[in-house]
Amino acid sequence: xxxxxxxxxxNKSDGIxxxxxxxLQAAKLGLAAISLTDHDTVEGISEALNAGTRYGxxxxxxxxxNTSADNGxxxxxxxxxxxxxxxxxxxxKNIKExxxxxxxxxxxxxxxxxxxxxxxxxxxxxxxxxxxxRPHIARLLMEKxxxxxxxxxxxxxxxxxxxxxxxxxxxxPREVITLIKNxxxxxxxxxPGILSSSHYIDLCIRxxxxxxxxxxxxxxxxxxxxxxxxxxxxxLIVTGGSDxxxxxxxxGKMLMGRYTVDARxxxxxxxxxxxxxxxxxxxxxxxxx
Length: 289
Ligand code: AMP
Ligand code: ZN
Ligand code: FE
Ligand code: FE
What we know:
By secondary structure, this protein is α/β, with parallel strands linked by helices. The protein has helices at about 20-30, 45-55, 85-110, 120-125, 135-145, 150-160, 175-180, 200-205, 220-235, 265-275; strands at about 5-10, 35, 60-70, 70-80, 185-190, 210-215, 235-240, 260. Helices cover about 40% and strands about 15% of the residues.
């Protein structure tokens, strides 16, 4: 079976590898297809597409957008988005700005708790990232030996409910689903197994989600089976991916490529994207209306 890992992050958001390195690694692992799904940014897409051509890996342009639902967070993947669409880029610009403001606010709270860090130091830690986030703060806290793991930083300080937690304005699931469809993409519910409530799945289905990520590094096989069944009942595309941020597991092997879906899912995504009314001239460039 040809395998596809359709959930990967690069250093354009909070991953470690560059987009090219992600694709090179995928080629080494023998993956037929991947999608780069960085948080709230499409900055890495061109580089990944070019690398895909060079290394013989099918690359699906993607994104992962966080939304807020009630008190929880819900992540939505967008596949075959047009990464040059101006409406998408405008929306991402606003999100990027909100992320910067949030990091500033978190740094201030951490200063209040006695941590000697600055916004510029986080910026440096974010390096080439287009969308900065809490993982960059966590890595700085680690570098300064305030915590020993990223997980500890989240659990003690910057995670939801922590003393340095700051809320960020997020779009609603409906808004993100519309945004993705409007730029030619296929919206897919990310890692439903880590949602705080299963009613979010129904909500996404009502709002027009077109796929569900059944296979994920944080799903059990039983959960994957439940999500496949939901997909069957609601005619959703089944997708899957490792959600690898460039990390190695305790056994020294990379997370990438361990949680995959049959690469035929890529054809279904492409068909759905075409069905959403976007001109699929060439593979990715379509005319904007
Ligand atoms: P942000 O985008 O700034 O809200 O940060 C959220 C990101 O941080 C997620 O997408 C994960 O990659 C990472 N993250 C969230 N919670 C944890 C945790 N407990 N331990 C490690 N990383 C986390
Ligand atoms: Zn992440
Ligand atoms: Fe996510
Ligand atoms: Fe992710």
